[in-house]
Automatic annotation (TrEMBL):
Listed SUPFAM superfamilies: Lysozyme-like
Bilayer topology: Single-pass type II membrane protein
Native species: Candidatus Faecalibacterium gallistercoris
Keyword Transport in annotation: no
Entries under Gene3D superfamilies matching the protein: Biosynthetic peptidoglycan transglycosylase-like (1.10.3810.10)
Pathway the protein acts in: Glycan biosynthesis; Cell wall biogenesis; peptidoglycan biosynthesis
Full protein name: Penicillin-binding protein 1A
Positions of the Glycosyl transferase family domain: 52-217
Keyword line: Antibiotic resistance, Carboxypeptidase, Cell membrane, Cell shape, Cell wall biogenesis/degradation, Glycosyltransferase, Hydrolase, Membrane, Multifunctional enzyme, Peptidoglycan synthesis, Protease, Signal-anchor, Transferase, Transmembrane, Transmembrane helix
Length: 236
């Protein structure tokens, strides 16, 4: 019996050592990818290029309701974390291990900005680690408002629309400041899965997602139940 216990203990030690070595290797590769991205173009130059786009919309030209909706549905601890959300990452890791996939990454708004600015959408552990390093760099260099502004100007809304101004013009024929509460909460839900919630391809699913967004806003204190009930689609 003691022999079996010793063997099991050694196997466990080897497994832990292997996991630690593998984790260190992934961290090193992720850091290398992060440094290569910054060496190719600095954070400051990358942000300046995004802001130079004619369609770039400053945060003070966006409805506060839309911004609240984005934070509520995408990253409700955005104001508190420093780039990553350990709780969301742990929840996503449990899901991914259970499903043997990378379906959920637990990404914060800051991580998504890092990915949109510097990396591809490919689901790889190395890229996720590079994304974390870049998220920390963004949090050091930018305010929360600046990060949120970059996010809404770089995310994909489906149907070929990138950024909030492009989406508003394409879907509603208006400027972001003119969004109704229903339109604002509708758009906030699309980037989670643009092909699924496309207003052109799947308007019913987009409407269901809008209801989820409003529910999250109530859950996290951005709206009262009465205010939420007043956000209704336009009459047919």
């Amino acid at each position: 019996m003691r022999t079996i216990v010793k063997i099991l203990a050694r196997l466990l030690s080897l497994a832990l050592a292997g996991a630690l070595a593998g984790g260190c290797l992934l961290a090193a590769l992720g850091y290398k990818m992060y440094r290569q991205a910054l060496d190719a173009r600095s954070l400051e130059a990358t942000i300046a290029a995004v802001q130079a786009d004619p369609g770039y919309t400053p945060i003070d030209q966006l409805p506060p309701l839309y911004l609240d909706a984005v934070v509520a549905v995408e990253d409700h601890r955005f104001a508190q974390h420093s780039g990553i959300d350990p709780i969301a990452i742990l929840r996503a890791a449990v899901h991914d291990l259970r499903t043997r996939s990378l379906d959920q990454g637990g990404s914060t708004i800051t991580q998504q900005v890092a990915k949109n600015l510097f990396f591809t959408q490919e689901k790889r552990f190395t890229r996720k680690i590079a994304e974390v390093f870049m998220a920390f760099r963004l949090e050091d260099a930018c305010t929360k408002d600046e990060i949120l502004e970059l996010y809404v100007n770089t995310i994909y809304f489906g149907d070929g629309y990138y950024g909030i101004r492009d989406a508003c013009a394409g879907y509603f024929g208006k400027e972001p400041a003119q969004l109704t509460p229903y339109e604002a909460t509708l758009l906030a839900g699309i980037p989670n899965a643009p092909s699924v919630y496309s207003l052109t391809a799947n308007p019913d699913l987009a409407a269901q997602r809008q209801q989820y967004v409003v529910g999250q806003m109530v859950k996290f204190g951005y709206l009262t139940a009465e205010d939420a009930a007043a956000i209704t689609p336009p009459a047919a």
